[in-house]
Structure formats: structure tokens, C-alpha cells
Specification:
FAD/NAD(P)-binding domain, 450 residues, alpha/beta, globular, Enolase-like, domain 1, single chain, seven-stranded mixed β-sheet
Length: 450
Amino acid sequence: MNYDYDLYVIGAGSGGVRASRMSAAQGARVAVAESTYLGGTCVNVGCVPKKLFVYGSHFAQDFEDAQGYGWSGMNARFDWPTLRDNKTTEIERLNGIYETMLNNAGVDIHLGKAVLVDAHTVAIDGVQYTADKILIATGGWPTVPDFPGKEHVITSNEAFYLPVFPRRMVVVGGGYIAVEFAGIFQGLGAQVDLLYRGPLFLRGFDLSVRQFVAQELKNSDINLRFDTNVKSVEQTTNGLKVNLADGASIDTDLVLYATGRHPNTKDIGLENAGVALNENGAIKVDDYYQTSTPNIFAIGDVTDRIQLTPVAIAEGMCIANNLFTSKPKRKIDYSNIATAVFCQPNIGTVGLTEEEARATYADVDIYQSEFRPMKHTLSGRNERTMMKLIVNKADDAVVGIHMVGPDAGEIIQGLSVAVTAGATKAQFDATIGIHPTAAEEFVTMREPRS
């Protein structure tokens, strides 16, 4: 059959754009549809604007710390519209870059909501296109549970475009997005309460990391409320009132719900093409991203594997390789993927947690260090850094590395190469450190934790 396209991609986020461009580079006729914004979550309401806000939120501490180094007279004042609007200008610039990259690659861009008509047909604004292969890369969307007053809360999507900066703020959630936004808004000057229904946030991270971060956030004056459930949110003459299940309440100006994200699979016609979903609405795929319909594939957050931009990009590269080259089929090894949480201080992690390592190996050694960064010997700040190495005693392999401290993501990125390569603790010990740096601690820890 003569199709309009060799590949039709639904979703122009990180994974969809990469798959589109690389497939077109192999000579495929490609189109990509996008209903919201080019670049997807990461560029528009995720990684990029969040990191810009993190930078902005840290200047208050920098101004305070500077006094210990002889700088005085800095009567700085924060202006929310300036940060918000400068961020938006940068995002619009990146949107343009994505458009240019797709155009230069020869990819047709269709702006609008694409819906599957059948396994080879996509409809967008009443126009139908046929394709030999179809790729679903529609990402995820914030989840807000149903409760009285749900209409009064926002999600991370809206947090980047607030018309007015809140004096008081409640963040609900226990994942990395909740923790990051609590730190951002506290750093910018808001009084922040972070509510989580469980006993300790950041479930899935190393327990030492979770406990250490909780203490550091408390030290930064974020009010942590664990084992706390929201009953309702109501509008008042002075803002909002968050009513808790234990009968207490919190008066605030803004409530941000960061209670997870769900795969964006609703109302895109997957049932018309026989594409099967998991119980949580994620698209089922095999190791090579093929769905239950042989010519339809899915990558990125819509599959609910690992919700990270570099993972979606790598999967997009696999799609282009597997569908449009004669090279051996490729798939991603999802073990030892490094990640960072841009709370303050940052978290960086790669490999197994201590809990996972103890469940996997017969015997492990744990090397852990906590210290005050050199910078704060003069600034006077009580912020601390924590570093942790997890070693399988049977072969001396370093199977997990975790850090909480300034630039943790930058440091762990380099160390993730060592973990991926199978480096041993003896090789870490034989490495000469760079002095004076925080990172040298990873090659100078000699005694296992008792």
C-alpha cells in the first residue's frame, strides 16, 4: 500500500522529536503531530524551566553567604514577573529551535490533536494521514485526585506561569517534583508547608538520602508534615484554607498538587487500533517498544517505564535504528541510569539503593560520609553534604552511589560512567582525588560504615 508517510509520530516531546529527526535522516518520510507545545514536558513545563527556577531560588542564599566573604550592602529584592517572563522568553526560543530542527530534517509538523482512526491512519483537525509505522510519544500529565475543592489547586504545569507570587504556599506530594517545588518557592521567599500522606517522602530513593534530605529541608525552614492527608480545600476572603483529615487546617495563598503523573493516553484513539494498555493506562510495549499492534510503537513517559528525558531520547534513537536501518536492533539497558533531584541541596544517584543491594547480594559494604562543605566554613551556613558508596563484597564492584549536596547531579553524572563500566572499590581507592573538592570524598572513603 502507498502510505502518506513511513512514520507518523504523535507527540513532539523529547522522544518524539528525536525519533522523527533520526528517522528522517535515514530517508524515511516522517510527520509529527503536537497538540500543546514543541519540546514536550521537559522543555516547557519540566526540566528546563524548573532548573532555571532552581538557579533563581538559590541567589538568596548566595547573597547571605557572601557576607562571610567580605561582601556587604547587597539589598537585593526579588521580582517574580522578571524571573517568570525571562523564563518564558527562553522557552519560546527553545520552541523555535525545535521547530527549526524538525524543518531542517524534512519532518512535516502538524499542530493539533492527533487521533488514531485505525492501525495505519491518523486524523488531525478533520484531515486524515496514513502511515506504515506509527509512534506514540504523548508523554504524561499531572494527576490530581478527586476531593472537595480540587478546582482551587494547581499543578506543576501552572506553577511556571503564576500571575502573582504567593506569600504562603502548600505543596502536596512526596515525590521529587513536590520536593523540588517546595525548595524553589521557599528559596524565592514563600513560606512553604510540604504535606505527604506517608511517613517519609522520596519513596524509592535510598533511605539514608531520604532521611538526610528531610533534615536539610527542615533546616531551610520548610515545614514538613508527614502522615498528613488533605480532606478539602476551600476559598476564603484571605486566600485558601487546606482542611486536613486530622481536623487541623492551614491558611495559604496557593496549593500545588504534585501527586504523580499519568500516561497521556486518553482520547487519542488507541482502542481504534487495538493498542493494549496496562492497568494504569500506560501503553504496553515489548523490549523494542512495539505495542500489541505490530506497526505501532511507543516510547517515553506514555509507557511509564523510567520518566526521564534522556531515556525517552535514547528510546527514540532505538526506534530510528530499528525501523529504518539494517543495523542490529537496539534496546535500552534500564539499569544504572543516573538521575538527579534539584532540591536544595541537590540529590544525585546511580545504581542500587542500600535496601536494593542488601536484597540482591549476600553481603555488601556501605561507605558513607557527612560533612560541612568548605564554602560554609566562612559563610556560616549549617548546610551539610552526604555521600554514599555501596559495594558488593563478593567482587568489590561499586553497585550504587548516592549524594546529597551542591552540584550532586554534575558529580554523579561522571561517576555513573564508572558504575556502568563495573568499577571496583579498589579502583576508586586507587584514583587520586582533586583537592580541595567535595567530589574527592568518593575516592577517599576507606572504612565501611559500622
